[in-house]
Amino acid sequence: MSDTPTLLIAGCGDVGSRLAQQMLQAGWTVHGLRRQVAALPVGVLPVAGDLEQPACPTAWPQGPLDYLVYCVAASRHDEAGYRAAYVEGLRHVLGWLAERGQTPRRLLFVSSSGVYGQRDGEWVDETSPAEAESFSGSVMLEAERIAMDSGIPATLVRLTGIYGPGREWLLKQVRMGYRVVSEPPLYANRIHVDDCAGLLAHLLKAEAGGAALQDCYIGVDDAPAPLHEVVGWLRERMGVTEWAEESTVRRSGSKRCSNARARALGWAPRYPSYREGYAAILGEP
Among 14, 19, 139, 197, which is least packed by CB within 10 angstroms? Predict the structure, then answer.
C-alpha cells in the first residue's frame, strides 16, 4: 500500500460522504459511488453507478483499491428493496472487483443492529446471538455472510439508530405529543451520524496503521436509554406540553447495545449520549 491509501465508498450518501470528508482530510484518495455524483463532497473522485444494476460503472477506479466501504441505504423499505440494496448490490461490487483483479486489504460492510432479535432489555455485544426475526434483519444477515465469505478480509459494522441533521423523526414525533410507555422500559440505541462516520474512519485508520481489526463492531453511543426518558428530556427542551391521546410507540423490542469493543480500539463517540447529540441539533450550547 502506498503512502496515500485508496478507498472506494460504495453507496456514498449521507454517512458515506461524511466518512469521505474525514478520509480526504487524512490524505487518502477517495472514490465515491452513487447514482447522483453531483452530491458528492468536493475532492471525492466520482463513480456514477447503480449498485442494483449488474453493469459495472464506466468510471470504476483503475489500479489497486486498498479499502472498500459498502455503505448503502435501501431505497425501498420492503424485502425486495433490502435484498436489492444489500445482497445483490454487494454481489455486484464484489464481481466488479474480481473482473478487474482488485483485492482490497479490507472490506467494511455497514450493517445494522437490527440483526439482533433480543427484546427484553438485555445487553448485547458482538458475541451475542444475531437471530433477527424481521425481514430487514434477516436480509442483512444474509448480506453479512456474503461479505464474510467474499475472500476479502471483512469487518461488519453494525450501526444502531442513526440520528442527526436531516434525521429528525423523533423530534417531529415529540412535537406531535409522542407518548410511550415507561414500564417495561423500551430501551433505544442511538449513534449520531457524525459518529457513524467517525467510527468507520477510526477503523480504516487503525487497520492502515497496522492494528488487527476484529470481524465485527457495534456502532452505538455510550448510553442506551429508555425511550420515555429521551422523550421527556426532549419535551422539556422543546417546550412541548401537549400529549397525544394514545401511546404512539411503534417499537416491538428492547435491547441495550455495548460499544466496549470499539472503545477498546481507541474510538470514542463525539456525542456520548442523546443529550449531547440532540442539544447540538436543537442549537443548544
Answer: 14
